[in-house]
User: Which sequence fits this backbone?
């Protein structure tokens, strides 16, 4: 089965603390994985995809095929990072989203 | 470019009423999809389309119909609204399935 699991519904950290948003996937073959973000009162938008190997807004995500994970990391959280984050997997003919993790960054 | 537009922004329906949520994109994207967003459930795919004239069911298609007569438009029809369909609905489009998805602003639907 093709599936994305985000085990944490809510992650709360203080400004300056490291952040890791967990994402695990189930897929046979080479997966294409993404992170999408929804800031308050804004549209969902692409944050990053694993094939581009970019760092966007200080966030990075590494594909670990052995652990079937694609965790999103940032070394020092900022208040403006507070948002809803979704991990997504390109399935056979559709994009499959996880249930999302709300990140709260306190001052 | 307007990107992905959705109307209406808000809607209240009574149980049993029908309505159509409109979605349009002006980026010439082949792939369009409808999601519903519920607390704790994340984004769930309702229906999707890989091109004009082609639609398919997603994870939660019951109670919804779609059609894709043009590349630009992908309306979602609620046949007989139920309280369980109270949700925020998002339309999205992309060049390909694995391409960047562009989302609309969402429609907040309440069914009483």
Assistant:
């Amino acid at each position: 089965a093709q599936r994305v699991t985000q085990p944490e519904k809510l992650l709360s950290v203080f400004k300056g603390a490291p952040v890791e948003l967990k994402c695990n996937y189930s897929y046979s073959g080479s997966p294409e994985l993404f992170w999408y973000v929804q800031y308050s009162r804004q549209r969902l938008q692409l944050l990053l995809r694993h094939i581009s190997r970019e760092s966007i807004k200080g966030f990075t995500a590494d594909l670990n095929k052995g652990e079937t994970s694609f965790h999103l990391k940032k070394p020092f959280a900022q208040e403006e990072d507070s948002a809803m984050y979704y991990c997504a997997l390109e399935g056979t003919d559709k994009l499959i989203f996880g249930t999302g993790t709300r990140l709260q960054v306190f001052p | 470019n307007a990107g992905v537009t959705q109307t209406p922004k808000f809607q209240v329906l009574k149980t049993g009423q029908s309505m159509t949520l409109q979605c349009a994109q002006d980026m010439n994207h082949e792939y369009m999809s409808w999601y519903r967003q519920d607390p704790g459930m994340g984004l769930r795919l309702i229906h999707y389309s890989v091109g004009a004239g082609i639609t398919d069911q997603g994870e939660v298609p019951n109670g919804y119909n779609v059609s894709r007569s043009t590349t630009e438009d992908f309306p979602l029809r609620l046949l007989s609204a139920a309280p369980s369909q109270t949700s925020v609905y998002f339309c999205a489009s992309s060049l390909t399935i694995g391409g960047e998805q562009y989302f609309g602003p969402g429609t907040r639907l309440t069914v009483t």
